[in-house]
Amino acid sequence: MSLSELALTRQTHGDRFDASFAPISAPKGARHLGARLTEVSPGKCAWPFHCHHGNDEIFVILDGSGTLRHGSEEWPVTAGDVVVCAAGGPETAHQLTAGDTTLRYIAISTMREPDVMEYPDSGKVTVFAGSAPGGNKAERRLAATWRKSDCVDYWSGE
Question: What CATH architecture does domain 3-113 belong to?
Fold first, then answer.
């Protein structure tokens, strides 16, 4: 497989998020290792600032430059850099923002399920479980997002 053969799908949201993605590992049958090619438009991000409570991620920067926000710090990234973001809480939250040119990278992750993500900036939590064969995330068995402030007591309604 060549990266140039991958068909990218674009995702945008508001003024901050604009990126294109192509799965690498799922179409080849991988179920416990995720990988995708990501291209982020200049000055934009692919995803909100988030952490994974059960999955590690590695980003291999192929082209361009940008900024990695990790926990409470920021670092520049450029082609050739490898960024490791371990599973954890808000102290491991991360986000890549493209600089003046397109930021192109491969994102690699463990695929432990369910995946629980926390978004420190917006106070949200997301749980994902079970994508269809080939990595079709639109067909997950479970996909739920809520604000932490909306939580109820474990015994509520029992």
Answer: Sandwich (2.60)
